[in-house]
Every structure is written in structure tokens, then in C-alpha cells.
Amino acid sequence: MNCKFIIIFGLILCLAFMDATRLHAEQRLDDEVIDIIFLNLPDGEATLIKTESGDNILVNTGAKLSYKELLIQLKELMVTEIDQLIVTSSDEEYAANIEEIRKKFHVKKFLLPDGFLLDDNNLNIQYWKDVDQYTLSKRVTIKNIDENANGDATFVLQYGEETVLFLNDKNIAFEEKLYPNLKQIDIVKIAAFGSGNSPSQRLLQQLDPYIGIIFHSPEYNINEDLVERLFASWIDAYFLKQTGSIYIRLSVNDYELLS
Fold it and tell me: Quick one: signal sequence residues (predicted)?
């Protein structure tokens, strides 16, 4: 009996999330907001950005075993075309489904790690090494902070006064490049599935983020010291494997956590 109850309860939660996701997507009528959805996948990273002009931008594609789940969530979010695909690393957990996504969602514009090639010469491809400031829409920009020796790109998304840091270097030594460029950050996506040492206490004090996002990969072990540091800094840390996908809506001067 208890086992059946747990299964039924789990199904109810899953259906509730699907309904809520669909409702948010359907009700998004305000052209003064953008939506950022950090997608919970079995392995890897993928983030959907819906701009104020209605474009769909996907950041990373997850690992191979996550492809079906990625398609399910994109369908729930009523995504039929992807206008731009941004990839921050050539590693499996970030880039394994590029070709499948490109073909299925008719992607024509890409921002990729240096040396990453696609089998279509008619595509609009830019590389992180050639980009400082990159425009996603009329009011949404990203600033390239750094591409490390492994080709992992760290960037800041800016919409009005709201900022999201996509941190993709897990080493504290890298943080020296952040201090001159960044002040307060609202949301930080933690690098390397929470397995590294960054962000340090010093960086957290400078950035003072409200929300931390940690994707899941079975290939990485979470650094417990990092977790303690996040909670000690009064950051709302969301581990997507436990919480499910996180849906955040940004206006030009505020954010709202929708799920």
C-alpha cells in the first residue's frame, strides 16, 4: 500500500509540474519579460531562454542519454523552433545532441567553442574566442568573461538590471578574471555540476547572488564544502535532480521564481 501511494504521489507531482510548465508558457504575453528555464536532465546541462521578442535560445544540449527527456521538456514548453543554439563546452554533458537539435528545430545561428565544426556550410556560426559582447535580442545580451584552456566558456546574461552568471570553470584561480568585471549577480549557474571549488567565499561575498543552480551528471560528485558555502551565504541553492526544472521570469528590474 505504501509503495503504491508513493508511486501515485510521484506521478501527481510530475503531472503538476508538466501542467505548471505548460501554463507558464501559455500565459507569457508580456513583451517586457524574458523566461529562463534550467532543465532537469538525467545527465548534463540545457537551459532554455525565451526572449522578450519571442525567440527561443537553447544553451547546451545535455548528454546523449538525456535527448529524449530534453525533447519532452521542450515540447511541454511549446518549443517548435530554436532560433539560436549556444554551447559552452565540447564535453559530452553539454554538446552531445547538437546535430539532433539543429536538424529537428531548424537552428541556423550558433555560438560554439573554438574548433567545433558542423556539417552544414550555410549556418551562421560564431566562436567564443571571437566574441566579447553578443546580442540575443534587442534587450538581452551576453558578455563573454573567459574561455579557459579546455574551451569552457563563462558568460553573463544581462536583461535590464537583472544578471545571470553562467559559471563554467570550477577552479578558484579562474575567479581572478571575474573580480574586475562583476559586481552584484542575481543568479549563478554553478560550474561542473557542483564538483569544483568555485565559487569561493570571496566571490560569493562580491557577487551576493540570491539563487544558485546546480545541474546533475552521474559522472561528477558534488563538493560538500561548496554546498555548505552556498547555504552559509544564504543562497537559495537548487539541485535540479531533487527540485526538477527551475523556471525563472525576469523583468528589467526584478525576477520571479515560477517553479
Answer: 1-25
